[in-house]
Amino acid sequence: MKLILTAGTLLLFCAYFFNEVHACTCLDYGVPTCSLFAGADAVFVGKIERITSAMDDNDASVQLGGVGSISSRGSDLIWVHFTLEHAFKGVSGKIIKALTYRGTSCDLGVKEGQRWLIFAHRDKQTSNLSFGACDGNGAIEKDSPLITELEKLSRHSGPISIRGRVAEQRFNNVKGAKAVITGNGLNLETVTDYEGSYSFEVPRAGQYTVKVIVPFSASLMRSRDDRPIDEKPEETQTVFEYSATASPDACDYQLFDTFKIDLKATASIAGVFILDNWKYVPRFYPSVCRLMPTEKETLSECRTEFDGLNPDGTFRFEGLREGTYTIVMNDDDFLDGNSPFPRHYYPGVRDFSKAEPIVLGQGEEKTQIRFKALPMIPLRAVSGQVFRKDGNPFSAPAGPKPFIKVYSYEKGKEPKYFFMDSYILDWGKGKDGRKVKLVDVSPDGKISLSLFEGSSYIVVVETNPWGDKVECGMAKVDISSQPANPLRIVIDRKGRCDEKEFAKELDAGIRK
To answer: Which fold has domain 161-260?
Structure first.
């Protein structure tokens, strides 16, 4: 049997943007119930009778589909068995079984005896239902007004509506944006509320034109399923226009996830990173920074370029204002899979005072920039084993594997989270990319690490990190050019690990 849980609107934090994350984020926090209802294959309210492990099927094809970030490491899949109380769409009978995840940052925390509202998706191959953290699923009271709303939706007796939400970079609601709807003899206007939402009830089904006007120059973050939207940015406002379909079967809902743009930022820098001593171009993320009088000021004026680099080392940074710039490899001087080299500046110097300025006029294109990259810091393999306090090797065959984290350690400084799970080689058009795993631990407690030479680290292992009974073990490891001794981590304390306190003990010589 094949079990696949799709992420839907779930977006686990990835290492490219954050140093450390213990939370789960979603693509949209304002999806109305009518849209959730329309997008789900099954909608019901049920009481959780029991929870079982999906891994009991002992099938290698069991997988957590759609989730590809480090946050899924150590995860387990579980079946949640519900006694059906209200069936609104796609289910019948007395008992409903649906798949979800446990042991990730998006763990829903389901418990027996709870009553839940579920918007589930059905796998096309297996017909299994699954649900996640971002589609409106959650505990619900027996007399919740949502039940009445869902009953109307199931009978197609609710109002015909067109809705939307306007946000800036997903998390900031845009209040007061104008929304105008026309078509079928209708011409209405409203503004977004404190949640950035707007709503129109229309008298009949059909096609309508909606214009949303935000009070700043903007563009849209788009997902692959977005409908065509016409963008007309100006200096003080932007008009977005799209076609909406009103239907008694589903409300039409659109998210406008905007980001501010500068219409006068039309200059660009293009060139190539010269990688003489590299066998390949790893996928890394350089920064373009305004060149300021001091290094500290310069590093505070950087923009990391996530899409500007090509597999052959060529790059192009666009959307720049006139001014003086430099290019920085590894702008925080912290080694991880996104920055496997020491910080250095254009044209390839470690000393900030020797950084050469790149002067841009408005709309100017600087090409032929050649950046001599320093060699990558070598990675060294470290292996080891997790032990119980009694000296026996750790093993958890029936439950989720332990969760491992690595922090860089430097005496007198706060530890930094080495979040990167892996980095990608041989990437580019027509290539899947080859991942080099940096941090891993198996269910039987065997540790496999690839860490950068010349650095020291704190390795943290937690059992059941999203459960009620967390246990912790920590150890320091120094990476030299010689093969490291096998790493031994003992689970010797209850509760979550405190790497900051452990670092203080190392600083004071209490631990080694």
So the answer is: Immunoglobulin-like (2.60.40)
